[in-house]
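Residues determine shape. Next comes a sample protein:
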Amino acid sequence: MQLKTALLSTAVVAALAGLCLHTASTDTPAARAAALPAAGQAASATSAAPALAATTAAAHAGHRLSGLFAGTGARPGSELAAASESPAQADASPAANRARALLHGATGQELHRVAADAFVARDVMIDRDGTEHVRMERTYQGLPVVGGDFVVHSRNGELESISQGDNLRTFGRPDIQPKIDAAQARATAASAFDGAVAAVDNAGLVVFAQGTAPTLAYQMELRGDRRNDQAPGHLTYYVDAGTGALLHTEDRVQTAAANGTGKSLIYGNIGIVTDSTASGFRLVDPNRGGGSTLDANNASVNNVSGGYPNAVLFTDADNVWGNNAMSDRASAATDAHYGVAVTWDYFKNVHGRSGIFNDGKGVRSVVHIGTNYVNAFWYDNGRTVKYMGYGDGDGNTYNPLVAIDVAGHEMTHGITGATARLGYYNVKDTGGINEGISDIFGTLVEFYANNASDAGDYLIGEKIYKSNPSGTNALRVMFKQDADGASKVCYPSGGFATGTQARGPNDPHLTSGVINRVFYLASEGAVVPSGFNYTKAQLVCNNDTTIAGVGRDKIGAIMYRALTRYFVSSTTYPQARTWTLQAAADLYGANSPEHATLARAWSAVSVN
């Protein structure tokens, strides 16, 4: 029998001794709200605000904030000191009010602000040295502006910079009176869906400004059964409210791979954290925000939008789960539960993030979805339904998709959605960056787990293959993703402007090869891993074969900072270079080896 609070592994036990934000009894929501510095009292290197100092002193007895980037050698002061836990808290914070006060004059001109624009803070992060990063969404005459997001960076009340994509570089705004009705927009969305439509809901009017001039549009939420595609069907269509033309399609289901992924089934006998009740035990993790693991009982993937309300929580009488085989449905559930726990611990202990939304709430995981469903996904309907879903594989080539790096990949999609909201399909380079960020942190989570049954590597999903004797089969090979015959690893002139739709030639699962290679080269250098017969020249696009890596922990810290402080919804690869280098300068200095190595890695994929 396993103890109720059995720990994941010796490595995870050791990690738990590091910095953990938001754990002390004095660390209440009220205290955390107070921790965001008051108006006129911007945090500084010596005093981030009295409330913040008191909170951190109580919450981290025996620990220091400088431990947050332990092992990365980050610049003192760059550590996270305070962060919002919800959009409402962010928008009500003094930091948000300070940021809004800066959006006038020349800054307003840079942002192409007009009189009817308003700004809502969605996320606030404050560094130990007092630098404030406030992520803003824009509205126009009360309508959301899709693509109007940006980040304000300031310190001591003075603007340092603005991060914004290529969208909304105009003072033009549309007439907000629609010329077609919602019924016509609904018909446009339905006709664009390749499959059987179940429902099309009108989510309201927006100003759509993603890759186009600001246009009044209907936002239509469509659910249905895709044709010749196992993935759950929930797509958002933006329809021009003046002409009825389809402007953009956004897929709500972000999967682990384009063609499939895929004890415990994988990890043998492992310790997990569960919850005890009067009648036994349930697969709920009280140490990680009450995250739960449920059985969909192979319900159709098209139940995605409801979050599988009939899924059943796994329970057990003796707290021993599964039998290392598919004959016990709890075996795959144990893998998923474990992977989520490791991912939670990685983000909390390494980056100070308490759950996907930094609110201390656990994630809902649903296993055994569909029949022969070869994929896993993160689902977010933009409102209240958010969870991770896992298919069982096909029983021939693929196991259930419950490996550690898959869990890390999917949870990172959630974090990306909570922070930068990087676009996915049909948004130039952005989908590839989104997908690559998930691969990067899935990899970092796998290394962090330090599990002998799945040693860290730069392969994604290698454990989902039922037969992989060489260990080199994988969904993505991060240092040479084009080994699959379709992925891109060298950035083309003009970027990935076309073919970025699902299963297109520049599908995000293919264009992620650019940033995946950057991560590998900056971490490890131009070094061919054991077991692969490539040359160094095959790992770069510019013959720079002497790159020496600075370590994945440092590059991981840089990537997390860029994602949460600088990236916006329409980030391109050149902007990703600029903003990751800014993050490197923040953490290590503009003249540091880390900055120089990362710059060479970007040049080695033709992003200059």
Remarks:
- The first strand starts at residue 80 and ends at 83.
- Residues 1-35, 37-66, 256-263 have pLDDT under 50 and may be disordered.
- The longest helix spans residues 330-351.
